[in-house]
Amino acid sequence: MRAAGWVAAVGVVALLVVFGLALAAREPRLSGTDYTPPAAFVTALQPGQRACQGSELLPADTAAVRLTLGTYGRPGPRVTLTATGPAGRPLTRGVLAAGWHQGVVSIPVRHVSSATNNVRICVGVAPAPRASAIALGGNVEPGEEVEIDGRSFRGVRFRVDYLRPDRESWYELLPTIAHRFSIAKAGFLRSWEWAAALLLVFASAFLAIRTVLRSVAASERRA
Amino acid sequence: MSTSRRALGSGGSARRRGWLRGRGPLARVPRAAWACAAVALLNGLAWSLITPPFEVPDENAHYAYVQQLAERGKLPRSAQPEGFFSPAEDGTLGTIYFYLIVGRPNDPAPFSEIDQREVEALERRHLRRTGNGNAFTATNNPPLFYAVQTIPYKLAGAAGGSVLDRLAAMRIVSVLMAAVTVLLVYLFLSELLPSSPLACTAGALVAALQPLFAFISSGVNNDALLYLAATGVLWGIARVFKRGLTPANGAILGAFVGFGLLAKLTLLAFVPAAAAAVAILLWRGLRRHQPGVLRGAAWAVGLGAVPIAVYYVLNRFVWHRSTVVGGLGTVTNSAVGRHFNRLEELSHIWQLFLPNLWMREQFPSYMPLWKTWFIGVVGRFGWLDYEFPLWLDDLALVLLIVVVTLALVELVRRRRALIARAAEAVVYALVPIGLAIVIGVQSYDSVVGNGAVFEQPRYLVPLLGLYGALVALAVRAGGRRWAPALAVAFVVLAVGHDIYGQALTIARYYA
User: Fold this and answer.
1) Which of B36, B113, B498 is nearest residue A211 as measured by Cβ atoms?
2) Shortest Cα distance from A135 to chain B (angstroms)?
3) Measured between beta carbons, which residues in chain B are less than 8 angstroms from residue A6?
4) pLDDT tens for each residue of B245-255
5) CB contact under 8 A, B112 and A189
6) What span, in angstroms and rounded, lies between the C-alpha atoms of B98 and B106?
7) Do the beta carbons of residue B352 and residue B455 sit within 8 Å?
8) Phi, psi of B376, rounded to the nearest 5 degrees
């Protein structure tokens, strides 16, 4: 029983340490997304041009917007991003200074504290001669459209991810995850679902280890 | 007259009390078995809360089947145009972004209160709960699982529940099936290794904490009842070998085969093993003039065959539904210009589960043994769109090698007992072979018919009982000195594996 007890103690401590360290990893975390798959570059913007698309849900607690941008191998030009509400009210804006590299790029924006639906997101490139063209990553989406300098391009949409402020560990994100557990769930579960899930995870782990230790004790009594 | 009736009555109630507490079969189930089942229940409930609605494979189709059965009292039928469930289900799938999340590991579940308000607005519309009678991939399934699920569906509906409420209630019933499955794993192991309760406990707990089993069983999917029935068949086989083909044991084996076939026809994979067990024990029993062995065989065959025969007749002549589930027949028309070839089919089945030795390549870009089965069973979740990092699969491979080695050591050490039970061992070997053939035939037909990949890791989970047996044998290999430490180590590792799977799921959908 002693050896089994030690194995259990060491095993549980090892699990706590491994999970504890993994949960401490700090990374940028999503506040939302527009669910457009970044399958290809769907829109090209020449210097001075601006691409806009509507029907975005600008989530609460957003401090940066993440886009997939191509630069045709050149250093990235200065890029501006604006978000305007349904009545044209400016909600937030941000600037990405020139010199970035193509790929998944985050543009810091003024912090947004409350969510707004039907938001229009516009991405603009600084004018020539110092700027070069960029491409926006997104997908072919029937029924959608992107407007470039007032001209409509149907059937495409660029991907927009919204990021929370700073880099957060899982510990810092826990209250947010608890709230997210309550969204789009059964009505009778909503408010307590996260607590129940957490309790059940620990209860099943505790009961499993207790059961095997009891079984060890019983087998030693029999012997 | 009244006295005798009273006596009968009191005898009946005493029997009922005995069944529950004192001397009945349930009272003889060891406490450890109940504890293992409780672990499966708690763990399954955790998975059911963590996994967002409809994110268990085909849950939308299985929900539609239950809805059709509960709302119209009819089984689903293929209907054109395909593409629509009921307005209530379609609306819910739309508002929870189902089609935007499935298969896209970077797209989370809805986050915002605005999304929640849209869900609530949809629920207030009380949309129609009947569709065109189609349940997509679930349409041709047998009805038993869905008939059971109409109970939580109706109960949640009677309480004014929405689609999401009904789904959550149905998930609880699936999890209860998982708990019974683990109870049966324990009972199977205790028939197999009666002198090693510790090994049985460890095997059943590791099975209870297998993340893919827990994930699939936490959703509305008829696999949950298939797993239960498949494990029940293993238990039934172990019982007839250990206790003889009595009428009661024959009935248990036959009943699990019978209702398993009404849950999912994949249970056909277990029929050769069950039939071989009955044939062997009937032959032995007749030779030894054992009383009741013929009746035992009759019960097994009757309860195993009659339900599916009745279902076949009703399905064909009353409900006018397809009687052959996709893939179980041979392909007549190929959409991808391939032709059915029996030899190639055998080669396909071999390569689906084993390394290619000399045959024409069936899977040129990957090795199913590793990519589909090993990595998948270690843990591929959602609609097959996220899995553990590769380092964990490598670690799992090392652990599997250790467990298999220990199990082999134990089998070699107990070779006399193994030889004495050789017939039983051969019957258990028929189970994975049967399952490989059932999956392989459908896989080949799918490739030839439309070029699609049919197989999914969850199709191996009916072997959960044998997985538990492997762990139990490995624990026994430790002998009196090391078995306790091995049992605890395996269970702690299983706990870590399971919690990692749950953490991965939370990260996938909520971060």
Assistant:
1) B36
2) 21
3) 485
4) 999 999 999 99
5) no
6) 13
7) yes
8) -65, -45
Quickly list H helices, B159-243.
163-192, 197-208, 211-217, 223-243
The residue type found at B98 is F
State the nearest Cα–Cα gap between B120 and chain A, in angstroms: 8
Give the list of residues 6+ apart from residue B276 with CB closer than 8 angstroms, or none.
B426, B427, B430
In this complex, is the C-beta atom of B183 within 8 Å of any C-beta atom belonging to chain A? Answer: no
Tell me how close the Cα of A179 comes to any Cα of chain B, in angstroms: 8
Is the separation of the CB atoms in B213 and B463 below 8 Å?
Answer: no
* Per-residue pLDDT at B227: 98
Secondary structure (H, E, C), B461-486: HHHHHHHHHHHHHHHHHCHHHHHHHH
Chain A nearest-CA residue for B54: A185
> What domains are there in chain A, each with its CATH number?
2-25+170-222 (no CATH), 27-167 (2.60.120)
CA distances from A109 to A214, B105, B127 (A): 57, 26, 40
Taking CB atoms and an 8 Å limit, are B168 and A32 in contact across chains?
no
Task: Kindly tell me if the per-residue pLDDT of B27 is higher than 90.
Answer: no
DSSP letters along B319-359, please? S---SS-TTSS--S--SSS----HHHHHHHHHHHHS--SSS
ipTM of the modeled complex: 0.95
The answer to whether residue A50 scores a pLDDT higher than 90 is yes
Are A11 and B493 an interchain contact pair (Cβ–Cβ within 8 Å)?
A: yes
pTM comes to 0.94
Spatial CA neighbour of B119 closest among B152, B171, B162, B61:
B162
| Residues B33 and B186: beta-carbon distance below 8 Å | yes
Domain spans of chain B?
Answer: 30-57+181-511
Count the neighbouring beta carbons within 10 Å of the beta carbon of residue B227.
31
Contact: B52, A185; criterion CB under 8 Å: yes
- A138 near B CB under 8 A: no
Whether A59 sits inside 8 A of B111 (CB atoms) is yes
Asked if B181 contacts B227 with a C-beta cutoff of 8 angstroms, the reply is yes
Considering only CB atoms, which chain B residues are within 8 Å of A210? 35
Quick: pLDDT tens for B470-506.
999 999 999 999 999 999 999 999 999 999 999 999 9
- Does A21 lie at the interface with B, CB-CB under 8 angstroms? no
Q: Which two tokens stand for residue B457?
A: 């890791």
Cβ–Cβ gap A216/B502 under 8 Å: no
Percent of chain A with pLDDT over 90: 91
Task: Determine, for residues A212 and B201 on separate chains, whether the beta-carbon distance falls below 8 Å.
Answer: yes
Q: Are strands A103-112 and B380-381 parallel, antiparallel or unpaired?
A: unpaired
DSSP A113-133: -S-EEEEEEEEEEPPTTT---
Contacts of B107 in chain A (CB under 8 A): 33, 35, 37
